[in-house]
Amino acid sequence: MPRLASRIGRAKPSAIMQVAEKAKRLKAEGRDIISFSIGVPNFLPGPHVYEAAANALTHDSGQYGSNRGADALIDAFVAHMGEIGLTGYTRANCAAGIGAKHVIYNLAEALLDEGDTIAFPTPYWTSYVDIAEIVNAKIDLLPCPPEQNYKLTPAQLDAALAKKPRVFLFNNPSNPTGMVYSKDEINALADVLVKYPDTWVITDDIYNRMVFDGIGYHNFVHARPELRERVIFIDSLSKTYGMPGWRVGFMAGPETIAQAVVTMNSNHITNLPEVTTAAAIAALTGPQDVPRQKNVEFQAKRDQVMAVMDSIPGVKCPRPQGAFYAFPDISAAFGRTHGPTGLAIGNDVDFCNALLEAKGVACVPGSAFGEPRALRISYTCPTPQLQPGLERFREFFAELV
Predict the structure, then answer these.
(1) Is this model's pTM higher than 0.90 or not?
(2) Angle made by CA atoms 340, 345, 350, in degrees to the nearest 5
(3) What domains can be seen in the chain, in order of their start residue?
(4) What is the pLDDT of residue 287?
């Protein structure tokens, strides 16, 4: 039999989806399962989005669309960026893809030759490593432990960029930690970035509308406008609008990069479907009451999560200020045993497996995100499930011996 390409050996299934599938299987077996695992917003977009999709079906052109994205869609995205202070972009600076993950993969193909280096902070979103490995890039991980609130320091960035990576990838607000960089923190990092003109900067900021406590969203381009020629901004409809399955992501940056993504689209996908495009335009240009309401709800849920995390002896959880994740350091449990079940806990994977078996609560081990002392809690489950799930978490910790 002919062999597979070597890159397939570098591709890995999603650790997040593996946990979600196990939880789903246990639930199908009749177990009472509360899932804090998968990062879906768990709400639906407003009715105007579905109306736009239905209208598109009745007016289907039956034709191919634009490799960049329909003009009306790109215009809506440009206006959307303007609302967060990213102005001065045109259609030529932008492109759409089948979700932000697809856009990031296209950028990896466009920017990284085999052996080039991509640098990004740890903890990281799981797909960053997977995508980099598929394109055979070198990875420089910049550890940001809980002791520094999971945030990158200017000194760390300076040291990393001095090694001249081709790409620096930055995520704000963060998945998996929920941390948000303040204006001053972004300014300090931007001051470092301007010193290294040979490195592309990708800001994966798909949670930019999910920011709490009045901290606001800030971008390197806000701080140092001259970085516009090297910064590539990533956004998505998935989280803000409750549309993960619709698969619409965007990038904005230098024209040469946007055109490269358009070229990749022409070979990978041709175009976004008309129905999806119509729904996306409606989401961006229509009433914004649903995402605003959900942001308020997520902040309240964050407060519930933190009240429990702060009450558990040994657990350290930097306070998230965005997205819908918490990332507690649960390493105090390592080397202990869950009394009622006798399950030994040597690491984060053991902890999550024992928590799921003993209490029916599904979380993702932190090692999937490059931080094996922690785990990720996605608190978008239905509100009636949140407090019971958190109480089970607290009970599990109290039963360790």
Answers:
(1) yes
(2) 105
(3) 6-44+290-398 (3.90.1150.10), 47-285 (3.40.640.10)
(4) 97
